[in-house]
Amino acid sequence: MKIGDLRFVAGGLVTLGGLAAFVACSFPGYFVPAGPAPEVDAGEDTGSEDAGTPCEGGTVPVGRATTCVCGLVSDAALDGEAGVDAPADTATSPDDADEGGTDAAPPPTGLAACTNVGEFGACLGCPSDPGQSCEGATLPAFTTCIPAGIVRLGATNASACPPGGCAIEAPEHVVALARFFLDDHEVTVRRFREWWRLGQVTPKAGDVVYVAGDGTSVTWDASWVVREPTAYNGNNNANWLGVAQATNDAYPVNYVDWPTALAFCVTNGGRLPTEAEWEAAASGRSGRLFPREAPETRNAAPLAAMLPCSRAITSVGASACGAPHSSAIDGFSVDGAYDMIGSVAEWVLDGAPRGGAGCTSGCYPEGPLADPLRAPVGAQRGVRGGSFLESKIERLRVQARAFSDSTTQSPEIGFRCARR
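User: That's the sequence. What structure does it adopt?
Assistant: Structure tokens below.
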């Protein structure tokens, strides 16, 4: 698949009280609606002491996001005069797009977010920003590109979790994600063997792994210990045969715990994807129930889209699926990521909400948020995608969430890496 074939698909837009006034972002051609800051839930751990600090102009708390429109740049800005920000009255809005009898499409929209120093960040999702689009992007090895965008995540899905829906997946919420690169396949035995053979380099304590939109940073903790995966013993579904054995090189490595997976990613120039990034990539950024299902089916009945082995390597519906193996040709997401569902489940960077898998309310922070992360504290970490041993189709949905102790080594869990 050519990188030029990738296109941005908005999963949903944010409406903030019908705001009509615009002020300029810090980037040319972008405009942010002026208005009161979204309320921050006092019970939600934002992970940053500055989470309530308003951005420049007093409109958006740190880590929160607000709708922006990619507008026109003033002549002065284009000529390099009088700064880069266009005046507010030059902004265009979707309502103005068809005036004058033209067939012009509405201007693309994105989300503006604050950084942890209290200034506006980029308008994520505006494809006119070359740093947020996949067009012409240079792909790092083993990756596919996921463009910046506005994505609706989570589900209510009463048909999958009767009678009251899936509390752990609620509320449905909107986030803004910057462009990122995601491994197009789960990390294979071959890639892991090469890393292990070279000494499985471990990050240093305090090394910064990731900085979320609200400034929350994940740093390598000295207590996180790297361990060799459990080896195949004739009866445990392990793909790892030892560092010298290449027999299973095409298979995804499993029996890898969270610190080891994170160390692999960090020392290879990346980190584990956040939950938000993982779900956005798996859903094609448009609310798919499964990666190859129709858009906006997140709340459809799971059995209406039973997955054959070629689309999700799993025991569900076909005993011949067997253990994880190299990908089938139609098993990829719309962005070109294979085996997001089935095969092995995958570690993500986030920790668990209050109550873990038993969370009953507020299990996601309220949106809109920018590059969100639930800090990986405590014992549990997020696991997404289900595995080849999963017996219930509803647990293989893109929106389904699971959690496991970070030291777990399981035949069902592998990983893939992400990077910016």
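Confidence is low (pLDDT under 50) at residues 1-54, 71-102, 315-322.
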